[in-house]
Amino acid sequence: MSLLSLTVELVAGVGHTDKRGVAILRGDDDLNAGPQYDKIESSSLGKRLRHRMGLWISGVQDMRGKFHRFKAGDAKHRDCFAFIDLEEKVRLYGFTCHPLPITNQRFELVVLTTHAFKKENETDKAELERVVMWRNHMATRQALREKFPDKKD
Amino acid sequence: MSHWTQASAADFAHNISMDFFAQLEKRIEQFGISRKELAGKMNVTPSAVSQILNSPPENPKVETLVHYARNLGLKVAVVAYDDNDPGNDRGPIYSGVFEESWKSLNRPRDLFDVQEACRHEPSISQVATYAWHRNAYGPACTTLGGIMLGGVMPGVISCNFMQSPYWRDIETVLHGGGSTSPLGDTKKSPVSQGGYSAYLKNQEMGKTA
Prior knowledge:
The complex is a heterodimer of chains A (153) and B (209).
Chain A: E1 7-10, E2 20-26, H1 33-40, H2 44-57, E3 67-69, E4 80-85, E5 90-97, E6 108-117, H3 125-136, H4 138-147
Parallel strand pairs in A: 2-6
Antiparallel strand pairs in A: 1-2, 3-4, 4-5, 5-6
Chain B: H1 9-30, H2 35-42, H3 46-54, H4 62-71, H5 95-104, H6 111-119, H7 124-135, H8 140-156, H9 165-180, H10 195-204
Helix pairs in contact in B: 2-3, 7-8, 8-9
């Protein structure tokens, strides 16, 4: 039993559908995507990032310099995901998952975990390792189960 | 909870601008156009192009949009639509959805083309009936019926079915299926002659096999 208690919070106002959604994982100091997003939410940067989340939710696949998976990398990081703003050199990292395998197998969620200011375009493996660590954490799985109870009525 | 663009008309306009420039970026990427090249056409610096693409203006003039689009060989339409979401809870529909829908109808030039494209679009029940009838003329079509109802149809029902690559694949399978069918040549069956159009016509005239 994990002592750490985390929460999964859907990003408000980005038009989630039954096919895709974007959420933030909160509850630990290392999970800095949430606090950073809160700071920029009402700024132009926040609006740009929300627009990109909306594009992804609408079904747009990877857009260079806007958001993407890490397909080209090794299998370990295949579920990692980043929303990017090149203008302010901000990256929000997270992972994709299907939190409703029984009731809505198709539903795909990006869970944002961490944040970085980064000028270079090269992938920072250390950031992806952090994402993978949080993705595999028991407390994360528990938080996802609580947010998305996957039981048929 | 309303969509973030519901806060103000300015936010909605900003979203339109970002949508628009995202479409331009797609075009630039598809055709491998360099930002330098586009900047040259527009008499601005490459960094100005980068900036407008990375951080689109919140409220650009329509003329600015047209200027960018024309330099990339594109045209622009401003579309008003009713998506049955008056409170804007679900947010605007991404402009790429309109573009893809238009392309899937074979890029109609006018409303007559739209009518024509829609006239040829069969309903699910029509295609199901078609598949069922075709099935009677060869076991090879049994699988096809399953594909059409279970896999292909949901993906193509919103486009001009007769023009879609799915349809051509299905036609190939249908007509090619005769050679593998132990029950004979499907090309000679009353339903398969003339394909789906003839089938529909026969149905209208009460001549269905």
